[in-house]
Design goal:
Layout lengths: L3 E5 L6 H11 L3 E4 L6 H8 L6 H20 L4 E4 L5 H8 L6 E6 L2 H10 L10 H7 L9 E5 L4 H18 L1
Parallel strand pairs: 1-3, 1-4, 2-3, 4-5
Length: about 170
Amino acid sequence: MTIKCVVMGVCGSGKSTIGKAIAEHFHSCFIDGDDLHPRANIIKMREGRPLNDEDRIPWLTRLNDVLFSMENRKQSGVIVCSALKRKYRDMLREGNEGLIFIHLYGSKELIRERMLKRQGHFMKEDMLNSQFEALEFPDSENDVINIDIKDSPEQIVTQAIAQIEKRLADE
């Protein structure tokens, strides 16, 4: 069984932790979308300046190409990417059939609390507001599974895996 999954959400929602566990469960490759940001984006975020739509286009194009490459090689993969706006998700979908998005969401307060505990990440806590402002909650997109992050990481992973397996069984 091959999967192509994008774990999405605002910074601090647990994308990397959950994405790695999903990839491990499905014996899939794991790619942190942050690693594919162009240098200019990384510098901008490190300076505490939020990215705009224009900044994100080359990044989303790279992610789309990675998803296409996975499909071409019949390889399973899990990519983490904020994918905050529908047009970003649509860019990832373009030419990539069968994507499953796992949207991790939670209150701003919970996520801020988690971000304050993180170390070594270039996303600054004060940029959280811009992430929430940009988020277009995907409640009407058929390929998105919305998961509240109020539970433990283990419970979130279990729920995500069950939902992915259900989707794959229904295909």
